[in-house]
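fyi for ur records
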Amino acid sequence: MKEELFPDNIVTEYSEGRDELNLAEFPIAAISHRSDPGIKTLKFADRTFDKASQEIIERRLVITACDEYGLPAAADDEVLLGLLQISRLQKFESSTVRFTFARLLKILGWPPSTHNYHRIRDAINRWLGVTLYYDNAWRDRETGQWVDAKFHFIEFAELQRPGREYLREEDCASVIKWNDLVFRNFREGNLKTLDFHLYRSLESGIAKRLFRFLDKRFYHRPDLVFALEAFACDKIGLTRPLKISNRSRTATVDVAQLKRRLLPAILELEQHKFIIPRTPEKRFTKDSAGVWQVHFERFASQSPMTVPVGDVGLLEGRLIGHGVGPAHAHRLVSEYADGRIEAQLDALEFLLTGKTGAPESRSGWLVAAITENYTPPRGFKLPGDGKKPKSPRASPKSIQLELEPVQDDGHQREADQVADYLASLPEQQRLTVEQDALDSSPLTRGRMASGNAGALLRRSIIHEHVLKLLKGPSGVA
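which gave:
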């Protein structure tokens, strides 16, 4: 790979990074600066609402390490993310990535030193020895399904020794090869934008992990509520601190300690104006079932990145013409194939010519259609198939189903909040909340109808009950 892909101004001013969505969802390394050499396995699990099956599914991730190098820690996670940025700068042309230690250090914002050269080398050694077992927890970009996946992130590495700066850069480049499954997700665009300048400015590993996870979730809505224990331990990666009751001699999670460990990282994000500041009393609350919750609200975004008019190409111009912001249009064109973008633009314009089926938000539909690779609407023919496109004749019901993924109004937002909250609860607490909802509803009086009607009524009652829990006395979720 030619080094002109890495001019100094791009590397040193690198701010618009990328993060793989699966890597932002679960921790893949110990949250501390150094992993415990006596621990060789990490386990994380959660429940989430799967829109495809309309059910709450269980997901699980197990990470195992070799004896020699152990589990990855926070710095190793940073190195992996830095290698992803180099892949992105190379436009994901190959799963084999050529890089120099000096360039990687610049992207990470680490000063050049023997110590940091060794940190990179040790990180790559660890990743070569780490196996990840995703059970129903790896989102395959091509199919859009949660799948089982077992792999190493890095398949092989050829690392040059530092101290050879007298050689041409292409002669002292190191090489790593991504696992094919991981690289396929990169190529398919299973990525999100990451403010790399902000990421590098954060000091603690907990703050960086918190930033990556919240930044992914804030994409859909500006305020978030999670069950504290599940959030801190299975999403951020904190160990579960236990305390023993003097009276019953039973062990329970020490919630106060979880709060103490999270607060400094939360304060960092507040100071960087990523989340709105709250007092600890408002940050951590109990719901009516006695479950501790943690609340986050995104700070109002700053002025968006602007793209000079002279730099706007044909596809960007078409996207902007349909209401997509210039910065977002620029990102889409840089991340996805021209044919994919053009096909979705043509599909939208086809829908707009019909009497029914036109989306309420053209820009929202376009962004979702490109990133999620929508199938063509009924009646639409791709250019080159020899047939003239027909006006859309699908029934209102089928059109609604085709457009459903982009409906992002208040009702969908509330439904997502309810589903995420229920999925974050331990199973027994979730069942208790659901039963409380049914018992307190005058519509059921403890009994439920059978069949689809009963299932829909049950879901509606639970939905309204959980919304009240989330809104609390203020009435605001």
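The two ends are 50 Å apart (CA to CA). thats all i got for now
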